[in-house]
Amino acid sequence: MRANRRSPDSPCSLLLLSAEFENTMPSRKFGLNLVVVLAIAALFSGIWALYNRPVTAPDWPEQISGFSFSPFRQGQDPQNNTYPNDEEIRSDLELLSKHTDNIRTYSVDGTLADIPRLAEEFGLRVTLGIWISNDEVRNAREIARAIELANTSRSVVRVVVGNEALFREEITADKLIEYLDYVRSKVKVPVTTSEQWHIWEKYPELGQHSDLIAAHVLPYWEFIPMKDSTEFVLERARDLKNLFPKKPLLLSEVGWPSNGRMRGGADASQADQAIYLRTLVNTLNAKGYSYFVIEAFDQPWKISDEGSVGAYWGVYNLDRNPKFNLTGPVVAIPQWRLLAIGSVVMALLSLALLLIDGSALRQNGRTFLTFVAFAGGSALVWIGYDYSQQYSTWFSLTVGLLLGVGALGVFIVLLTEAHELAEAVWTRVRRRPFRPIVGESDYRPKVSIHVPCYNEPPEMVKQTLDALARLDYPDFEVLLIDNNTKDPAVWEPVQAYCEQLGPRFRFFHVAPLAGFKGGALNYILPHTAPDAEVVAVIDSDYCVDPNWLKHMVPHFADPSIAVVQSPQDYRDGTESTFKKLCYAEYKGFFHIGMVTRNDRNAIIQHGTMTMIRRKVMDELQWADWTICEDAELGLRVFEKGYQAAYAYDSYGKGLMPDTFIDYKKQRFRWSYGAIQIMKGHAKSLFGRDSTLKRGQRYHFIAGWLPWIADGLNIFFTAGALLWSAAMIIVPQRVDPPLLIFAIPPLALFVFKIGKILFLYQRNVGVNLKDAFCAAVAGLALSHTIAKAVLYGAFTTSIPFFRTPKMRSSHGFMVALAEAREEVFLMLLLWGAAAGIALVQGLPSADVKFWITTLLVQSLPYLAALIMAMLSSLPKPKEDEAPETAPA
């Protein structure tokens, strides 16, 4: 028995243990994933809880000294002569009578003149306001009506002639004194005017013509943090008592807004309003001050005069519900638990989509995506909640809808960017690795290499032909198609050189020939050797490696493979600083995006260094309706159920654009073509009955989403400039946009730059400096991509334009003209930022944040200017000629 027992270390035992371990791996992986999700959910729920931790504040007293009372409701506005009716006013007065026996009004126009009569029903005393402005006819009317009410209504206990009329500079001090003296001579109750505390200090003579000092002390407007505001009010009250020792003091406006812009350390929030008011009214009660809390009810109509914050000074909202608990702890967002649950649900839905095919991701990748999903979900919920606290107009609803769509779009793009990062960094093994087949292979079919050419420098094309002649492959042909080149001096030398290279090289010159590059390639398909099984395509500036066919063609031994693609690469990346930046930017797509796409058989076919199975090429042909016939053909290959192989080893190097304008034209063509393809294949990409697999649809849509985001960013820039212009022209009426307008695009910008700097170092193998160069080059194309997306959305076709090669550098002014649109927008954004700083100063965080947003928004345009300037620098003499063989 003992002799038959296996040692625990025997090979069979190890195999059994390994099998048991593998069988338990899925459950262990699920358990670990669940733990991570729960931990991150707990983290973000904890953040919600931390932000909404209860804060102790004194309970609201049974009685306060008084409320400022404006009874306007939704859609009512004294500036449009729309006033509440008596029943609405009566309802408001009944509610206020439970907390005070004093109210203050501001005008006697319209039905506001009924307030003293209605106030008597509830035992309320009225401090009657007369609105004084630069309209003397209205002033006279208001004064006459107020005198009548003061002399006939028992509820009127004092009259206030004017509210901040001197502060608004709508009247002179002498004229106001004249009004004060007149009203005092006509009524028996005390008379005063109501101004900000510093106006009383500026015009102390007002005290001689007033029966009491009615001062506004509003720390929010003076950038005082909430925690210091109660003491600020008491200090100003003491100053006024010292200045007017023989006059009674009335703090005719004290309050704090619940929403709106920040002013220095003063944050307009519901929690700060609750803490401040509950603390202040108890303090003022204890010290025996008379005061009016501004105000009883929110008044959205004030936005036009005071900015967005003007709507939110009420203790009650527009629906007559208290905006905060009058007793017990204060919580910033009372509904935070519901919002936290909503953010968890949104995060889990996003995560479920991201991890549908995430089996190859290591745990770090799944953890990263979980964190991003929860961060994005929480941000979206917070944005939605914050915007829901605003009072709605047709304009705000429109803006809110656009903001919501924009925020959702940013969230989607952010998730796709994060997904690519995770799959590039934390994939265990590549699911579809296609390494070069370097050993001997029995599969060596004939290859027909097609070289499209249009108006290219003959010497450059000869270098391409020389490299093809050196291919180490037994059976291939080269067909060069020159389409529409008019100058015989350009194409005839190439024709002669093909004849010199022998019968393997055939030259075709056709003019006219329609259909762009795709039309030229279709033209030579019938001329392809009948026994060729593979069609390969390279651009006329590419010098291929001798092993290209030998290492790549054997992949076609798999009958399911229809396309074999090698990356684009360039041999002139060290020729100039401009090309160094371009080269760094190009590499990212081929060493990051294409690698992750290949795992799901979803690469973007590009028109050089590509091979297509001959029978598939004959079946599908090149499209002549799009300027990106290569990517379009690749999508149709997938629609037919074929597969593509991508090997990220470089087997050919071409030439990059020599000038910034050519660099932009090339990217414009790619971006415009992408939108053409999305429109032309909309049913396949977005429809329900599609032959594309889920991963293929995802990558084609997600891969082009960042370009679409660039297109939409034009509208953000335009809106930012218009809003900034309004802030400069009418600074008192237009506040900086709410932070929720700027945070999503800024967050996406920061994430994308961080992703580039990280991935280029890790996956492309460049240093931080080159990664930064790639970011600059990529940013420089943002405006070009945006225009291409918009053109693509609203047009069906544009002329094909080639990317010229071997052009000489040009002067500074020409380079500046190449980036004139970007420079113009950059200067507008800089001017807007400077104008806001000069007009509004830098008093508060939201102004600083908006200026920062404008400056960040200008970075892509600055990058374009830098790239244009770099492209204008002369090339070093030793680098003027490109290499004649691949490096």
Structure characterization notes:
The structure is a single chain. By secondary structure, the chain is α/β, with parallel strands linked by helices. It folds into four domains: 133 residues, no CATH class; 245 residues, Glycosidases (TIM Barrel, Alpha-Beta Barrel), CATH 3.20.20.80; 219 residues, Spore Coat Polysaccharide Biosynthesis Protein SpsA, Chain A, CATH 3.90.550; 173 residues, no CATH class. Helices cover 52% and strands 9% of the residues. The chain contains 29 helices and 17 strands. Strands 1-2-3-4-5-6-7-8 form an eight-stranded parallel β-sheet. Strands 11-10-9-12-15-14-16 form a seven-stranded mixed β-sheet, with helices on both faces. A two-stranded antiparallel ribbon has the order 13-17. Helix 13 runs parallel beside helix 14. The longest helix has 41 residues. The chain starts with 10 loop residues before the first helix and ends in a 16-residue tail after the last helix. The N terminus and C terminus are likely disordered.
Helix-strand layout with pairing:
Elements: H1 11-51, E1 67-68, H2 86-96, E2 102-104, H3 115-120, E3 125-130, H4 136-152, E4 156-163, H5 173-186, E5 191-196, H6 197-202, E6 213-216, H7 226-243, E7 249-254, H8 270-287, E8 290-293, H9 303-306, H10 336-354, H11 363-388, H12 394-425, E9 446-453, H13 458-469, E10 476-483, H14 488-501, E11 505-510, H15 516-524, E12 532-537, E13 543-544, H16 548-552, E14 561-565, H17 577-598, E15 610-613, H18 614-620, H19 629-639, E16 643-646, E17 652-653, H20 660-680, H21 682-686, H22 694-729, H23 739-764, H24 768-780, H25 782-794, H26 812-818, H27 820-840, H28 845-857, H29 859-871
Parallel strand pairs: 1-2, 2-3, 3-4, 4-5, 5-6, 6-7, 7-8, 9-10, 9-12, 10-11, 14-16
Antiparallel strand pairs: 12-15, 13-17, 14-15
